[in-house]
Amino acid sequence: MQWDDARIFLAIARAGSLSGASAALGLGVATVSRRLDRLESALSMPLFSRHQSGYRLTADGQALLAPAEALEQAAQALGDAAQSQAQVAGVVRLATAENLANPLIAPSLVPLFARHPGLRVQLVSGVQTLNLHRRDADLAVRMTQPEAGHLTIRRLGTLGFGLYGSAGYVQGRAGGNGSAGTHGSDPFEGDAFIGWDDSHAHLPAARWMARALRGRPCRLETNTLSAQLAAA
User: Fold this and answer.
1) Mean pLDDT along residues 17-26
2) pLDDT mean across residues, the chain
3) How far apart (Å, rounded) are the C-alpha atoms in residues 89 and 117?
4) What's the mean pLDDT in 192-215?
5) At what angle do helices 5-15 and 59-86 cross, to 10 degrees?
6) What are phi and psi of 27, to 5 degrees?
7) pLDDT recorded at residue 132
8) Residues 44, 102: Cα–Cα separation, whole Å
9) pLDDT of residue 199
10) Is 195 helix (H, G, I), strand (E, B) or coil?
């Protein structure tokens, strides 16, 4: 039996004629007739009695009507499931650093949601380590490359670091000219810095700052970038 021939059977049963089934299916009348003959041959039973007024279900055909409709519904459900799988939908848990989540990722979600109405995102910001294998998150955007785990990794870009201060602070440096210190070779003499605490010393930004300051301690240490911005 060809499973798709059940569609022919149902179309003829609903239309009551080969021509009606042909129009509903977009197939030629000869094709519909040939496939009905094939189905009846495979089942070893007549499904319709032929009359001048059209096709009528036989008792055997009537008995197979419900199973054929169930087969049709199963095929439709299979198609719907496949279409659903091809769509971007559902909940995605994304872990990332706060300084990426707030200024970069969150604004970018607007066009993403417009393209994929069925998508929901749980944005988890922080620098704590999450286990993707335990499904703590589905995706992670990080500043450091993972050293363990069976993960698919993609480099998204290169991030640069710098030292920044408020406009008033920078203008007041070194007698108001905004330049570096004037004593000796230390460009940061008299400056007060805001940086990361010891628990975040592993971050690339913290390591870069330690090199830039040549070991000079920070006046204020925090564990979030937002606190550093507020302090500056």
Assistant:
1) 92
2) 86
3) 8
4) 90
5) 120
6) -120, 160
7) 62
8) 69
9) 87
10) strand
